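From the thread on structure requests for the teaching lab: each student submitted one protein with a one-line request. Submission from student K.M.:

"Model Phage head morphogenesis domain-containing protein from Actinomadura violacea, tokens only."
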Amino acid sequence: MEHQNPEPSRRDRKVVEAAASVLAAGLTAAAAAAALRRALKPLRLAAAAIRAAADLARRIPADRRPRAAGPTAQQNRRDSHHYRAWYLVNAARRIHTAIRARGENETVAAAVRNALRPEMRYLRQHLAAQQNRRRAAADADRMAAIYGDRLGWWSAQDGSTTSECRHAHGRDYLVSRPPRMGLPGAVHPHCRCRSVRPWGTRLLT
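Reply posted by the TA:
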């Protein structure tokens, strides 16, 4: 699980937009960390939590612009900044909660160190999900170049298939308006779905 909601709340949206702009600007690590601390400041969390979240951003590799990316991959690249920003907002909140709940003899620095242990696991999950979305977008663009905007959804049919992916199997979707669950291959961290030629069936929404 990626530990982030698909969309930020209305209250957080401006903070996420500001953080996404910082991530998209391609600043150096030090400049990006400073800009992110300013962007996250409206959350009114402990300064140590905001610093820790900004430092987490240093561990997120910058997206390399592909030489020739289709429209789905380009949109995914734009979306990835918002997903990353939303992850950092949630990380700052989790670290802030750990600071407030620390033991009587525990320092703020120790609370942050302890909070970062599980946070690194969440970060790896986040990065894996981003990679899945990147692959899925490239696959959809490749198939759309052959079959057009309407593609089919293929899912593995075995005991490991999730209910969402099982439901999508054999249905069509539009590359220009992907279903709410996302693209084939990006529904969950271990998604094995893929885009195929259109089935000629009802559209997923």
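TA comment: The first strand starts at residue 150 and ends at 154. The CA atoms of residues 47 and 62 lie 25 Å apart.
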